[in-house]
């Protein structure tokens, strides 16, 4: 196995893609539906699909620090 790029797991691919394109100015390299890679060298992946790929429950995927703070 080799490292390809950082992968950010997201709940909503459309909202996340819009954020990275419009707010951060990233350009899409490939859009494969559940996985969108950006020319900036990273990708976003739909959380539910990612959970299925690695064989875990979606709720077992660790949340980011900021999301955890808002839940407290």
Topology:
Layout: E1 7-10, H1 13-23, E2 28-31, E3 35-38, E4 42-46, H2 47-54, H3 65-71
Parallel strand pairs: 1-4
Antiparallel strand pairs: 2-3, 3-4
C-alpha end-to-end distance: 37 Å
Please trace the helix and strand order, writing H or E for each element. EHEEEHH
Total beta strands: 4
Q: Helical content, roughly?
A: 25-40%
Shape: globular
Percentage of residues in strands = 15-25%
Structural class: alpha+beta
Number of helices: 3
Rg, Cα atoms, Å: 13 Å
Structure report:
With 72 residues, the chain is of the alpha+beta class. The protein has three helices and four strands; from the N terminus they run E-H-E-E-E-H-H. The protein has helices at 13-23, 47-54, 65-71; strands spanning 7-10, 28-31, 35-38, 42-46. It has a four-stranded mixed β-sheet with strand order 1-4-3-2. Strand 3 (35-38) and strand 4 form a beta hairpin. It is globular and about 30 Å long. The protein starts with 6 loop residues before the first strand and ends with a helix. The model has no long low-confidence stretch (mean pLDDT 86).
In short:
The protein has 72 residues and is of the alpha+beta class. The chain has helices spanning 13-23, 47-54, 65-71, and strands at residues 7-10, 28-31, 35-38, 42-46.
């Amino acid at each position: 196995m080799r490292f390809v790029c950082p992968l950010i797991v997201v709940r909503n691919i459309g909202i996340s893609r819009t954020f990275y394109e419009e707010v951060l100015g990233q350009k899409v390299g490939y859009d494969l539906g559940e996985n969108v890679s950006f020319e900036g060298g990273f990708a976003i992946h739909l959380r539910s699909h990612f959970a299925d790929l690695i064989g875990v429950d979606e709720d077992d995927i660790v949340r980011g620090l900021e999301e955890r703070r808002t839940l407290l």
